[in-house]
Specification:
Residues 1-42 have low confidence and may be disordered. The strands form three sheets. Strands 1-3-2-4-6-5-14-15-11-7-10 form an eleven-stranded mixed β-sheet, with helices on both faces. It has a two-stranded antiparallel ribbon with strand order 8-9. By secondary structure, it is α/β, with parallel strands linked by helices. It has one domain: Amidase signature (AS) domain (Amidase signature (AS) enzymes, Alpha-Beta Complex). The protein has helices at 4-7, 9-17, 64-72, 78-96, 104-119, 162-169, 212-219, 236-241, 283-293, 338-353, 366-381, 387-397, 408-415, 419-442, 479-482, 516-526, and strands spanning 99-102, 131-135, 173-178, 225-230, 245-248, 275-280, 320-323, 327-329, 332-334, 357-360, 445-449, 465-467, 470-472, 491-498, 504-510.
């Protein structure tokens, strides 16, 4: 079948350009589209029900740990829990458009099997019988995998992807799939097939992107855990906008090449930036999800075995913490708004009062990191593409150009994205990673913002944001996220409560490569010092 790139190079240019924001499906675009047909969920999921299903609300907003204890103690059944979550989605999804495909029949069948296993004295994992959702890009057999793009409207997952298989093996109950922006490439969740998603804290605002539907579902009580992906902030931005915990995992630690996106024939050889990870309402649930997911079967073509270290068990006063809220980049600072400054400053004060070693400092690498991200993005999207297509991509990129010259690395790399240039980028990026490895020998963690401020109001793509009297470009609003993807390190999102408008504010804690156990331990230590997840008003 003729590929999309040969049909319409100009349209591809615009699409590829947008991958600079929160994309996580860079490898899907030029894939074959030859699978069976299925229509994405429509109608009932997005319309207010004529009559609501009676709902006691016994299980909604309980943590996975709480639900697990109820299941083990015979205080609840997996079928009862699943029915309540399904009812909540049917009653209220029209408000937020968080869920786009409901796996009702199969979920109830899985819940029945979970109950039968419990009755036999079997317990698969801490996720046994626990409701979860997965991002639309991941393969769940028989489900649409459209990336909210008309070009993939007919793609159906032929089988479960490896991450989904692992969730099922753990006994988790997959309720359905969450909303995404077109081609996973926006800070908002809006697209060509599914309705635009809304933030449960303020429906005039976005839940973020590209895991926006998953974050909205968690905040609205539609699920206990959400599986997302992050190429440049796609997990962290939605978690921040919806007041959640999340984990951007170390690159290569989870399988993102088998069952991820509408791609059955991609010949791409380059892999970088993109990772999978969970979102949750508590750090304990985040850890539980990660412990399950990290045992997913590896794709040995692109992944290496990892020997995970146990968390140290240290107390707060034994940590060395670096932080910033105004990262210097040459003679300018990459600043953030007053809400983020205030919340971050209060967290740092609390950590300081508990005896940790604190220093406001950041490596002088912000510009290098952004350059590495832009170069890598071009080398990934330009791999194997003819010059006319690459020129069209560059022309489209000019829509983002603010005259500062910061996009020059992308243009230059797109001029010649060959294997030699890819090798040169890898060598240069290794030096950048080494600088951060040195930094993490001095400090355990680096604490910094995720976005300039709270969730933005829904708007046309690339519209500037006016906040605190300043005008911030659409791309600039979340540039504290993209820069960490090239250096491959993990990052955990910590919700810090609500601002005066009732909107969530969050920050990220970045650790060295494969430090997920220590990050999760530290997040649990911080739990008494922070408000954590706060249920949206009225829910």
């Amino acid at each position: 079948m003729e590929s999309a790139k040969s049909k319409n190079p100009g349209w591809i240019a615009v699409a590829i350009v947008l991958f600079i924001v929160i994309a996580s499906g860079l490898y899907f675009y030029f894939a074959a589209q030859d699978n069976a047909s299925a229509a994405p969920s429509e109608g009932d999921l997005y319309a207010k029900p004529e009559k609501e299903i009676p709902l006691e609300g016994k299980y909604i907003f309980k943590s996975a740990a709480e639900l697990g204890a109820m299941l083990r103690n015979g205080e609840a059944s997996a079928v009862g829990i699943t029915k309540e979550f399904l009812a909540n989605i049917k009653n209220n999804n029209y408000k937020y458009k968080a869920i786009v495909w409901l796996r009702e029949k199969e979920a109830l069948e899985d819940a029945q099997k979970a109950d039968e296993a419990i009755a036999r004295g079997e317990w698969l994992s801490p996720l046994h019988g626990i409701p979860v959702t997965v991002k639309e890009e991941y393969w769940v057999k028989g489900s649409p995998v459209t990336l909210n793009a008309n070009q993939y409207r007919d793609f159906v997952a032929p089988e479960d992807g490896e991450l989904v298989k692992q969730l099922k093996r753990s006994g988790a109950i997959i309720l359905g799939k969450s909303n995404v922006p077109t081609l996973l490439m926006d800070y908002q969740t809006q697209g060509e097939i599914y309705p635009t998603a809304s933030n449960p804290y303020d429906t005039t605002r976005t839940p973020g992107g590209s895991t926006g539907g998953g974050a909205a579902a968690l905040a609205a009580g539609f699920t206990t855990l959400a599986l997302g992906s992050d190429l440049g902030g796609s997990i962290r931005v939605p978690a921040s906008y919806c007041g959640l915990y999340s984990l951007k995992t170390s690159f290569g630690s989870l399988n993102t090449t088998e069952g991820d996106g509408p791609d059955t024939a991609s010949k791409k050889k380059r892999h970088a930036l993109n990772v999978a990870g969970p979102l949750a309402r508590t750090p304990e649930d985040l850890e539980t999800a990660w412990l399950v997911l990290r045992d997913t079967k590896k794709d040995l073509r692109v992944q290496q075995p990892i020997e995970w270290k146990q968390a140290s068990g240290r107390s707060i006063n034994q940590y060395r913490i670096a932080w910033t809220d105004d990262w210097q980049n040459g003679d300018q600072a990459v600043t953030v708004g007053k809400d983020v400054k205030e919340k971050l400053g209060a967290l740092i004060d609390a950590i300081d009062q508990h005896g940790a070693t604190i220093k406001k400092t950041a490596p002088d690498t912000y510009g290098e990191m952004m350059r590495s991200y832009l170069e890598c993005l071009a080398l990934l999207s330009g791999e194997g593409q003819p010059e006319p297509v690459r020129n069209s991509i560059k022309d489209g990129m000019k829509q983002w150009d603010d005259g500062t010259g910061r996009l020059k690395p992308f243009y230059d790399a797109m001029d010649n994205p060959g294997d030699t240039q890819w090798q040169q980028w890898q060598e240069s990026n290794e030096k950048l990673k080494a600088k951060w490895a040195d930094f993490f020998r001095q400090y355990d963690f680096f604490v910094c913002p995720i976005t300039y401020g709270p969730a933005i109001t829904k708007r046309p793509k690339r519209t500037p944001i006016i906040i605190d009297g300043d005008t911030i470009s659409y791309f600039r609003y979340a540039t504290y996220t993209t820069i960490f993807n090239p250096i491959e390190v993990p990052s955990i999102t910590i919700p810090l409560g609500l601002n005066k408008e009732g909107l969530p504010i969050a920050i990220q804690i970045v650790g060295p490569m494969h430090s997920e156990p220590e990050l999760l331990h530290f997040a649990k230590l911080l739990k008494p010092l922070t408000p954590g997840f706060i249920r949206p008003r009225g829910l």
